[in-house]
Amino acid sequence: MKLRNETLIQQGQPAIYxxxxxxxxxxxxxxxxxxxxxxxxxxxxxxxxxASISGGGGVGTFNLMLGHIKENGLNNIEGTQKxxxxxxxxxxxxxxxxxxxxxxxxxxxxxRLMANDDGHGLYQQAWRLNPTQQIYYDVxxxxxxxxxxxxxxxxxxxxxxxxNYMHDRSTINLRPKYNINSNLNIEGxxxxxxxxSADKQKxxxxxxxxxxxxxxxxxxxxxxASQGVSESQLTARALVNYNKELRQDKDKIYLTAGxxxxxxxxxxxxxxxxxxxxxx
Length: 280
Fold this sequence. Notes:
mainly beta; ten-stranded antiparallel beta sheet; two-stranded antiparallel ribbon; 5 helices
């Protein structure tokens, strides 16, 4: 406070803190505010849970894996959760037909404060606030927040609104292979992937009053939801492979022919398709 006064005086401006006010802070009669401590309501933690089961015998094997990750932010609202599941199997029938299949899905949920939607805005506000600025008026009424240029990080946590994001991704892959004989086989690969996302935000109207109870500001109602452009991708590939040993196993010939088709579909009515062929 003294340094701030000296700086203002050097700039030809009047001091803003009186000797009496400085003495009240120095003696502890008026408490300073550590804004960063005030908004850090808890210690950030992360919990990672995983479970798996596998087995098989005879013609095939399988493996199932489940996962859950939960991360808490530094306040009681923010955090993320991720749920995931993966299943794969391998089927082999008499070395003639082989099928490998893989399925994976995950969901990511993100909870944010509207004032901290970029991940650091709330902490920038707290860092910039003067520790001599108080959180509340010294009056007998619930949550008498003081706004400093319409900013109060504690009020932002309690009444500034929240945003919620959800991201889904799922993939499935099928890879069949059929051995016609020891020299000739046919194999394929079919995969499908889909991405989805959505978000919503909510802030209810909240009124702020000055020390005497007169209204000074309103944080208006803000409710909205949107869904992102979903993307799906389908890929299909088929190959015919031939190999034969020549000159008493001294040389070997390989022949491969096949094609691949890819299709991308978006919920904004876009569609992209590709096709290719190969002989090697």
